[in-house]
Structures are given as structure tokens and as C-alpha cells.
Write a structure and sequence with these properties.
single chain, mainly alpha, Cytochrome Bc1 Complex, Chain D, domain 2, two-stranded antiparallel sheet, 4 strands, 51% helix, elongated, translocase, transport, transmembrane, iron ion binding
């Protein structure tokens, strides 16, 4: 039977193991360590710095110096918090001219932008650093070139299922309660349509990529653009507002015209002489 070894480890064995472990950790760190900032990353930081300056001048009076929002005395928000809204929300609101608002109203209308495209990019870059949120969509969402008829048809199905209740089946818009409305989608860029779906501006719900995939979002945009560009084979479209407007046109122009003609004939037609 073999005897158990009674030899003890050398006192320096633990130190040697520790040095070997430190060497392994150092090698792994050197392999995965962050590289020095590239020119693009430096430009991005420049955008963040410039965006903060723009924010403090043009936005902080409503949203607060730290973009955490300002509450009114009645408990409502004078300007909501922008922490976590992401770059896409800023690009949409500022890029469409909805922000800054000219005056308080139930809904911010689209208008000519107050900021240039470069300034909008800088503001979006700054807000993006305050919390995780949707980024400005890339070609995966907005590139609709080469879409097949089948993809456009699928986009139309998604649009009719999720969007027509507010925007109408052809994106003509419509009225909503409380003085609000769903805006027309005619002339809206593909990027801004994608941003609206991603961020849910104002009363619009958010359609995350888990709900509607990027491909389906691009199919929806392709359908909207296809409908806007298709000719009106039946004549005047009546604004594309649906059967209500068409019925109104029928009564005013059709039935109204017949009533006017009947009244004119009755007033100027041959009269029966009394005996």
C-alpha cells in the first residue's frame, strides 16, 4: 500500500499561481479592450456637445435643463421628460417641425422645421445619451425600393389592421376626440413614418419591432407610398376620406343639383291659366 505524500507545497506556489492568473487576465483584457475613439466616434461626441448647447437654448425652458420635464401647478406636464425617448423621437418631432411648439394646443401640428438637419441630428444625439430609446431608423426600415406586389399587399394588410381606424385606409387622416387628429400621410418621408411607428408620437400607439417587424414596417411604408402615387381611375377621389365624404358630395352636388333644377323648372315653366 502506497503512503500518502507528506511533502508540503512550496511557500511561493500561491504567488506563482496568482501571477499566472493575473497574466491570463491581462492577456484577455488586451485582446478585448476598447480601442481609441475613431474619427466617427469623436464626431458623435461633438454632436452630443453641440446638441446639449442647442437644447439648453431652445428646449430647456419647457423640458428642464436636465430634460426631466417640468410640471405645472395643476400637476400636468408643461414639457414631458425626454429621458429614454431616444434619438428617433427627437428626429421625428423636430424634423417635422412639431417641436418646438408655436403655442400650447391639444396636438402639435407639423410645420416647417425650426432647426436644420444638422442641428436636428445634434439634438437627437444628445437626447440619446440620456437613456436607452429607439435609434433613428436605417435602410432596414426605410428602403422600399424593389418591393414586390406581394410585399406591398402584406403592408396594406398591416396598415388596414393597425392604422386605418385613425389614418383612413389611404392615409388621408381623420378627426379624433379632444381636438386631436390623425395627420395625413401624404408627403411624409419614409424615415418619419418609420419613426412614428417606433416612438408613438402624441396619441399614436408604439409599434415596437416585437409587434411589427422592421420588414413589415417597410412594407407598410411601401403600401402608403403606392396608394399615394396611384391614379384615380374613377375620377375625383373626394379626398380619399371614404363613404361619408362621398355620400356628402352625392347629396350636395347630385341631389342638391336636382332640387335646384326642379325649383327652376317650376318657377319658369309653362303655367296653367285660370279660367
Amino acid at each position: 500500500m502506497r503512503k500518502l505524500s507528506t511533502r508540503r507545497r512550496h511557500p511561493l506556489a500561491g504567488i506563482v499561481v496568482l501571477l499566472l492568473a493575473l497574466g491570463v487576465v491581462g492577456g484577455v483584457y488586451s485582446a478585448v479592450r476598447f480601442q481609441p475613439a475613431s474619427a466617427a466616434e469623436t464626431a458623435s461626441q461633438n454632436d452630443v456637445d453641440a446638441g446639449r448647447k442647442l437644447f439648453l437654448v431652445g428646449c430647456a425652458s419647457c423640458h428642464g435643463k436636465n430634460a426631466s420635464g417640468i410640471e405645472t401647478k395643476r400637476g400636468g406636464n408643461y414639457g414631458p421628460s425626454l429621458i429614454g425617448v431616444g434619438a428617433a423621437a427627437v428626429d421625428f418631432q423636430v424634423g417635422t417641425g412639431r417641436m418646438p411648439m408655436a403655442q400650447s394646443a391639444p396636438q402639435a401640428p407639423a410645420k416647417d422645421p425650426e432647426y436644420t438637419a444638422e442641428e436636428t441630428k445634434q439634438l437627437a444625439a444628445y437626447i440619446a445619451t440620456l437613456g436607452a430609446g429607439p435609434a433613428i431608423p436605417d435602410d432596414e426600415y426605410t428602403d422600399i425600393s424593389g418591393k414586390t406586389i406581394e410585399q406591398i399587399r402584406e403592408g396594406g394588410e398591416f396598415f388596414r389592421t393597425n392604422c386605418t381606424a385613425c389614418h383612413n385606409s389611404v392615409g388621408a387622416g381623420g378627426a379624433l376626440p379632444g381636438g386631436k387628429y390623425a395627420p395625413r400621410l401624404d408627403g411624409v418621408s419614409a424615415k418619419h413614418i418609420a419613426e412614428a411607428m417606433m416612438t408613438g408620437p402624441q396619441q399614436m400607439p408604439v409599434f415596437s419591432d416585437d409587434v411589427i417587424t422592421p420588414e413589415d414596417k417597410s412594407n407598410i411604408i411601401a403600401y402608403i407610398k403606392q396608394v399615394q402615387n396611384q391614379p384615380n381611375y374613377g375620377g375625383m377621389a373626394g379626398g380619399g376620406l371614404g363613404p361619408v365624404s362621398e355620400g356628402l358630395f352625392t347629396w350636395l352636388i347630385g341631389i342638391g343639383g336636382l332640387l335646384i333644377a326642379a325649383i327652376w323648372i317650376g318657377a319658369h315653366g309653362a303655367r296653367v291659366k285660370k279660367k
